[in-house]
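Technical annex, item 7. During the second reporting period the consortium partners agreed on a shared format for inverse folding records so that results from different sites could be compared directly. Each record opens with the tokenized structure and is followed by the designed sequence. A conforming record, contributed by the partner at site C, is shown below for reference.
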């Protein structure tokens, strides 16, 4: 007896940004395994009586181990349940989707992936800016600011990250951005390059701070809030 798993992208947290397919899958799910950033109003679309299981990961907080999450997916699906694995943003961006897909394939369980609004796109929209700009930002790059240990990843492509003609979005980078910014400036990125700190995007406590790479690095080195955040830098549109 085997169920089915829907990997549902919840977007940045605003339930109005859910896709129709995401709402449908939540409404029909027997079990919902949800990330920390996918909780709250989004779960209001889950079917009454569905089992809700928190499996989120947040830096510096007790979190579910990935092998435990994989096991839960398989175990629930093997009972014949319709399972939703609810992931924040778009499931395919820095969400460890592939590890969970591998576990399902090994167990012979069918699945689908429901795409959603990436948090980077939601942050830019909230700030009223485009991610690309004709002539000045022909390229967009997404990078994680933390490896599996929470530290700045090694072997970064500094010339690419310091490209003044690219808009760069840093996920999970508040803690490591001071070091990242130092490397960027050493690689030639001007210290006054525009930067945007987008905190709690899609949530009531959303906050957008327009600044520069150097100033943001100094601010984050001195003090950081607990809110999840994205950092955008490059040729961003003026306010």
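Designed sequence (site C submission):
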């Amino acid at each position: 007896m085997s169920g089915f798993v829907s990997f549902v992208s919840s977007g940045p947290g605003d339930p109005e940004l859910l896709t129709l397919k995401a709402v449908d899958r939540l409404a029909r799910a027997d079990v919902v395994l949800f990330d920390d950033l996918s909780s709250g109003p989004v779960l209001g679309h889950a079917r009454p009586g569905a089992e809700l299981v928190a499996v989120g990961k947040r830096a510096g907080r007790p979190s579910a181990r990935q092998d435990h999450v994989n096991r839960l997916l398989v175990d629930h699906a093997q009972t014949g349940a319709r399972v939703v694995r609810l992931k924040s943003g778009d499931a395919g961006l820095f969400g460890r989707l592939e590890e969970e897909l591998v576990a399902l394939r090994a167990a012979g369980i069918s699945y689908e992936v429901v795409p959603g609004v990436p948090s980077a796109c939601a942050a830019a929209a909230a700030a009223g800016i485009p991610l690309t700009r004709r002539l000045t930002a022909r390229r967009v790059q997404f990078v994680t600011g933390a490896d599996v240990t929470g530290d700045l990843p090694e072997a970064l492509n500094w010339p690419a990250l310091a490209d003044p003609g690219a808009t760069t979005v840093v996920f999970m980078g508040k803690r490591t951005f001071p070091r990242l910014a130092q490397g960027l400036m050493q690689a030639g990125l001007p210290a006054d390059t525009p930067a945007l700190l987008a905190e709690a995007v899609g949530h009531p406590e959303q906050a957008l701070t327009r600044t520069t790479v150097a100033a943001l690095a100094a601010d984050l080195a001195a003090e950081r809030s607990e809110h999840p955040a994205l950092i955008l830098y490059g040729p961003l549109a003026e306010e």
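The two ends are 56 Å apart (CA to CA). The chain has seven helices and ten strands. All partners now use this format for quarterly exchanges.
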